[in-house]
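During the no-cost extension, the postdoctoral fellow (Dr. R.K.) reprocessed legacy sequence entries with the updated structure-token encoder. One reprocessed record is reproduced below for audit purposes.
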Amino acid sequence: MVVGPAIWLAGGVIARAIPNFQWSVLTTNTTSGDAGGLKQAILGTLLITLGVLIVGGTISILTGMYLAEFAVGRHRAILRGGYEVLSGIPSIVLGFVGYLTLVIGLHWAFGLLPAVLVLSVITIPYITKSTETALLNVPSPYREGAEALGISPGWTLRKIVLKSATPGIITGLLVAIAISVGETAPLLYTAGWTDLDPSLTLTHAPVAFLTYAIFNFWDAGTTSGLILSYDAALILLVFVLLIIIVGRVIVAVSRRYAE
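Re-encoded structure tokens follow.
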């Protein structure tokens, strides 16, 4: 029930994208609204994803470590309940809130920073949960043995516990990255769109992204727009596949190193 529709979806995108795919779509920018290539959208997606990985990943991993290793009682329950509630909020609502508070309220306009912050909020529950679970699944004798040897809790956490929990943490990061790559509504509210390459300017500089091409060019009513939408879908599929492959390699290496 799961594999069948996934194969049908991926096969349909590949069958429609490959016959008209040209390598120039990777090296040229979109022109005339729905023609040309998708270079600026590819670079924008990569830049936004990197920002989410840095901002959302850092906050989430630190939060998961705090919940698993230091928080106790009601404090832990409140924080855990908070990120569980956050995971249930629709992404379009978070995007709209980001638009009202960041783009309009703080006068940042469309740009990289609003997009990264909103997507980071969306990914925080998933990375935090995976980090907390991975740390809690580390066998207790690891900590007890380190304590018996007189090793400080900080050194134990850095050198022993985190090393054993790395595969689970990386899995959560990969899931969060895949989610952020596929989001559309929050980015429509925060990133905007541009035919220019992205820059490191955080505000007042719209950033292109691939899901916009799928969402907007499909309804353009032109052959070039339809081709671009399928090209963007194919590139996203390849992007997610590469993330999965790289993640599996990292997890395999980290597990072997942990052993």
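The mean pLDDT is 88. The first strand starts at residue 30 and ends at 31. The remaining legacy entries will be reprocessed before the final report is submitted.
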